Amino acid sequence: MQHETINTRALLEQFCERISTEAWVAFDTEFVSEDRYRPQLCLLQIAAGEQLAVVDPLTMPDTQPFWDLISSPGRTVIAHAAREEIRFCYRFTGKPIAELFDVQLAAGFTGIEYPASLGTLVSRLEGKTLPKGESRTNWRHRPLSSHQIRYALQDVTELRSMQQKLVATVEKMKRASWLAEETAALQQAVIDGEVQENWRRVSGLSGLSPRQMEIVRQIWLWREARAKATDQPPRRVLRDDLVIELARRQTDQVDRIRSVRGMERRNLVPYYDELAVAIRTALELPDDQLPRRPRSSRKNFSNMLSQFLSMSIACVCRQHQMSPAIVGNMDNVRELLAYELNDRQDEKLPYLLQGWRSEVIGKSFRELLTGKLAIRVFDKHADEPLEFIETNQ
């Protein structure tokens, strides 16, 4: 497979200058994330027009020229399951990928399973089989073998052809605006994950009081800062269960912090005082500034009803030739039911009534709730045997 090997920033700048006039750029990344605060970029594979290149980020100070290129309008940028690529782009530029086309996302709007692996899409759309065997490669290791390089390049060589096929299908189904909306939402969700406090993801929050939740938040802020400074995963700095136990004790006394089983670890001993300060900050916060638990949507309606409507998503999606996983899940159904049945019309629209999902789901669900639609078995041998029928009510 003919390709360029780029191992200096000067060569990368020259390459990016050459491909800057191309109508499309397809790319993929290889990275290692297990022992870092943020994933370490280890390889960039790029295809643009007739040009194909492998970029070695470990041999240069940064890969800024490439991220500047794809964050600027002027070309279609093609990737598969681009969440981590979006994250890399935002970290380097502070901007999303311009004119991103995610083939995995697009496939979900055409009836192909979602999320589909690259191998599945290549098989379905190109009739080819991608080789396996390097999924557990240590991409930090140098030198990389020719087999590893070939394996990595095959992640980008089919992207342009698949993108063209998917564009044609999406446009034929009149879903280009849906795909654009979902792509923008995906990029914004990734960026929000980078800039917003995510302390509510700490495992074990259920049942904590507002004061205890604020202790979790303050310890989470300390843990993030420490993890970033030492370039290690936050949970390696301090496990979630220890964060929750410290919050439950509600004390900034160092001897009580020390007495928590698990806190005697040698790497934590130097930070008792810092943790005490974080906890004290939470204990001193006025009551009216404490975090509140999000209002629950899981009450005042039948669980059987929510299960029935969740099942009906598959029926809706079959009729729309879409993958159910891209539309919504049981939590989204419960949110919609709470909105419709608990007189919450003044609140933010639920997920399933926003944007393109409202066109797919909203009308059908409301008609099901009012009895204007029913579900029946239309083909007991089919994978999706149900269909909607009007009841003439």
Brief summary:
The chain has 393 residues and is an alpha/beta fold. Helices cover 48% and strands 11% of the residues.
Overview of this protein structure:
The protein is of the alpha/beta class. The protein folds into three domains: 4-195, Ribonuclease H-like superfamily/Ribonuclease H (Nucleotidyltransferase, domain 5, 2-Layer Sandwich); 199-289, DNA polymerase, domain 1 (Orthogonal Bundle); 303-390, DNA polymerase, domain 1. Helix content is 48%, strand content 11%. The protein is built from 17 helices and eight strands. It has helices at residues 9-19, 64-70, 83-93, 103-108, 118-126, 146-153, 159-172, 176-195, 210-230, 234-237, 240-249, 254-258, 272-283, 303-320, 324-327, 330-341, 355-369, and strands at residues 4-6, 24-32, 40-48, 51-55, 76-79, 100-102, 373-377, 386-390. The strands form two sheets. The protein has a six-stranded mixed β-sheet with strand order 1-4-3-2-5-6, sandwiched between helices. A two-stranded antiparallel ribbon has the order 7-8. β3 and β4 form a beta hairpin. α9 (210-230) runs antiparallel to α13. The radius of gyration is 25 Å and the shape is flat. The termini are far apart. The relative contact order is 0.08.
Topology overview:
Elements: E1 4-6, H1 9-19, E2 24-32, E3 40-48, E4 51-55, H2 64-70, E5 76-79, H3 83-93, E6 100-102, H4 103-108, H5 118-126, H6 146-153, H7 159-172, H8 176-195, H9 210-230, H10 234-237, H11 240-249, H12 254-258, H13 272-283, H14 303-320, H15 324-327, H16 330-341, H17 355-369, E7 373-377, E8 386-390
Parallel strand pairs: 1-4, 2-5, 5-6
Antiparallel strand pairs: 2-3, 3-4, 7-8
Helix pairs in contact: 2-3, 3-8, 9-11, 9-13, 14-16, 14-17
